[in-house]
Amino acid sequence: MAPHINGPLYYERMGRSGPVMLFIHPNPLDQSAWMYQMAHFSTWFRCVAVDIPGYGRSPSASDGLSLEDIAEACWETVDEIAPGEPAILVGCSVGSQIAPQMYHQQPGRARALVLTGTGFRPIDDPTAAQRRAMRISNYRELGVDYRWPYTFEDFSPAFRSTPPAAYFAKLFTERNDDADVETIIRQFEIQRLDVSMYASIDCPTLILSGTEDSLHRAAFALKDRIPGSRLRIIPGAGHACQLEQPWLFDRLMLEFLGDHGLVPGSFAG
To answer: Fewest CB within 10 angstroms: 188, 199, 211, 240, which?
Structure first.
């Protein structure tokens, strides 16, 4: 059992055959952030979407929680479904921190990384530190109710005012009774991925970036630091671009996986 996490992670599954594909959600959402991709990619893959600690129906975590603990818990989820098998690791935002950590824990099992809502920022970047401090302050003041306004921040300005955006925010916050605010705060307080680790990633890696994401410019710097990685752009999309434009997100991801021979069956690209 992964240290500092009070039980196994909750997960949802779609697809009963094919390679394993693991989805790791962003803050402040939960595994439902991947609803479109779970429905689509289950055509070819055994899709698994986890709730990270403190979110959805996953357990809380104690003091001392680390990124390594969460990555280990994600591998435990894979092993519950497909012991010892490799997996394609897909992450958004904090999920894009966890997936590379999973790679470094078990590099032989990571068939590919798909990272979105992310970019390269030095570990001592003051903007990132200020943003984390603001999140922590808001959670301490508002508790789990902060998830409602925070959800809209994951979307582009144009998408925020649409009925689907309000629907998604309602969906995620209806699960607030199962969330644990102290665990969520701990995740903001823990050390982020050691950025020096990017240079040693040696599996196919796709970076997907929405032009309206605050990290969009940093996505280009991330591409430069992961050898052989590919960067594709989703115009007009925000941080959670897989929810805003799933048709384009999925197409770019399928093209990438197809180019690397990672889509089984009759898929022709």
So the answer is: 199
Half-sphere exposure of 67 (CA within 13 A, CB side): 20
- Estimate the share of the chain in helix, then strand, then coil, as percent rounded to the nearest 5: 50, 15, 35
pTM of the predicted structure, to 2 decimals = 0.96
Q: Is residue 25 part of a domain?
A: yes
Q: Is residue 264 part of a domain?
A: no
Please give the distance of CA 132 from its chain centroid, rounded to a whole number.
Answer: 17
Average pLDDT value for residue range 218-247: 97
Q: What is the pLDDT of residues 7-19, one digit of tens each?
A: 999 999 999 999 9
Number of compact structural domains in the chain: 1
Phi, psi of 111 (to 5 degrees): -75, -35
CB 73 within 8 A of CB 105: no
